[in-house]
Write a structure and sequence with these properties.
Cobalt-precorrin-4 Transmethylase, domain 1, five-stranded parallel sheet, five-stranded mixed sheet, 12 strands, 41% helix, elongated
């Protein structure tokens, strides 16, 4: 047996010390989940598909080479990532329309989750090209099932904005979603993200899962303020991070006028009136229209005070 590389035995893989021939696969785009850390977390079907494909489209060919080498797979690799996707997508679609069998993988886990593969899949579907899923590892689901937070409803946000103001605004927009929130985050922004989540969402239950399925897998649990304080006082964590936040309780506690004013005034130091109102409304559970009206008043009073203040 041979695939398009023309090499005898190329459509084969090695597992448990045994060499296995891979059966031919049908033409089309095969979306293949790969391990998020532990190389043992891959299915036999995924190995057979990677071995039998004409070409493997990889977000980072260096990462995928390690996986292929581990299982003795020699299928050619082709880089497909956010920087070249628009340029190479037409030629990949042309190959698919000509009857090629292409496998799509991401750096790790299930493709299309926070990577550019969805555009290729979308175009393939529009052109009537067969698209087949090969399910497997997912950092989102791996974190969710061990978090101890509600799993009947969850919302995957991906990465929050890198700047605090925009991040708080987006968190405020997510605050009323009746399910567990799931985020990806970079190690250097984890502490700041947790601090902003705590500021906007208050003392909800939260989890930080790091390096899942790897040697230094770590899961931290606690309230958002406690977790933010702990991570903020430590050295910058390393590795891939998933943050999870429990859903709102549905209890809107009464907030005194002085407390509300203090929160609005603090938010106005770094946010616009609209964004400050959104953040404080999400944090306190008070109606956004009411908070916005008070924010307008406080902003006007602050400007008036600045205008009338005499110079020293």
């Amino acid at each position: 047996m041979q695939n398009s590389s023309g090499l005898p035995g190329a459509s084969a893989f090695t597992a448990f010390g045994l060499r296995a021939e891979a059966e031919p696969i049908s033409p089309g785009l095969h979306v293949v989940a790969t391990p998020i850390g532990n190389l043992g977390d891959i299915t036999f079907r995924a190995l057979a598909t990677l071995a039998a494909a004409d070409l493997i489209l990889a977000e980072d060919t260096r990462v995928t080479k390690t996986l292929l080498a581990h299982y003795g797979i020699t299928t050619p690799l082709f880089p497909y990532h956010e920087h070249n996707a628009d340029q190479v997508r037409p030629q990949l679609l042309a190959r698919l329309e000509a009857g090629a069998a292409l496998a799509l993988v991401s750096d790790a886990g299930t493709p299309l989750i926070s990577d550019p593969g969805f555009r290729l899949v979308g175009e393939a579907v529009k052109r009537g090209i067969d698209v087949r899923p090969l399910p497997g590892a997912s950092a989102v689901l791996a974190a969710l099932v061990i978090a101890g937070l509600p799993t009947n409803r969850f919302f995957f946000e991906g990465f929050l904005p890198p700047k605090s103001g925009a991040r708080r605004q987006r968190i405020a927009e997510l605050a009323t979603i009746p399910g567990t929130l799931v985020f990806f985050e970079s190690p250097r922004r984890a502490a700041a993200a947790l601090a902003d989540l705590a500021a906007v969402l208050g003392p909800r239950d939260a989890v930080m899962a790091r390096e899942l399925t790897k040697m230094f897998e770590t899961v931290r649990r606690g309230s958002l303020p406690d977790l933010a304080a702990e991570i903020g006082s430590e050295e910058t964590p390393r590795g891939e991070i998933v943050l999870l936040v429990g859903p709102p309780t549905g209890e809107s506690a009464s907030v005194g006028a002085d407390v509300l004013d203090a929160k609005i005034a603090e938010a106005l130091k770094s946010l616009s009136v609209k964004d400050a109102a959104a953040v404080v409304s999400a944090e306190t559970g008070q109606p956004r229209r009411q908070v916005y009206a008070r924010a307008v008043e406080l902003a006007a009073l602050a400007r008036s005070s600045e205008d009338t203040e005499e110079p020293d």
